[in-house]
Amino acid sequence: MNDHVRLDGLVPDRLLPKTHKIVLEEMVVDADIGFHDFEVGVPQRLSVTVEVWLDADAFPHSDEAAEAWDYDFLRRDVAALVSARRYNLQETLARAVYELIAARRGVAALRVSTRKPDIYPDCAGVGVELASF
After folding, report:
1. Residue range 84-119, pLDDT digits in tens
2. Nearest CA to 79 among 95, 62, 97, 64?
């Protein structure tokens, strides 16, 4: 017996989702980043946020894991990319993260931001953002 109530066709067209988004919000990683002498070789905290808008067909239509877009990929591969080398600029790192995700199946739009939270005592962070819109 299926306890899940089917509501197909009952939601008015005007209320159907217009966008489908997956978010990896403020993932904190240690990054060897910066061009100042005191930054080189001294990992610092970096916050990475990724917002992925998916084509409707790439967003799960059932509760089956096989349809899911892989959150683990986002977390694992972003962390691997950050730790793979040192970066002089946040812009370079943000672009690498952006390109990694933009090449994935079903991506309709994308926003990637990076922030160094420990740079200025009077700021929550300093960083960059790339977006496809």
Report:
1. 999 999 999 999 999 999 999 899 999 999 999 999
2. 97
**5 domain-assigned:** no
Count of domains for the chain: 1
86, 91, 97, 103 alpha-carbon torsion, rounded to 10° = -130
- Cα dihedral value 68, 69, 72, 75, nearest 10: -150
Q: Is residue 108 in a domain?
A: yes
Phi, psi of 51 (to 5 degrees): -120, 120
Tens-place pLDDT, residues 24-75: 999 999 999 988 888 788 899 999 999 999 998 888 887 888 888 878 888 9
* 3-class state of residue 31 by DSSP: strand
Range of the domain at 126: 17-131
Q: What is the CATH number of the domain that holds 107?
A: 3.30.1130.10
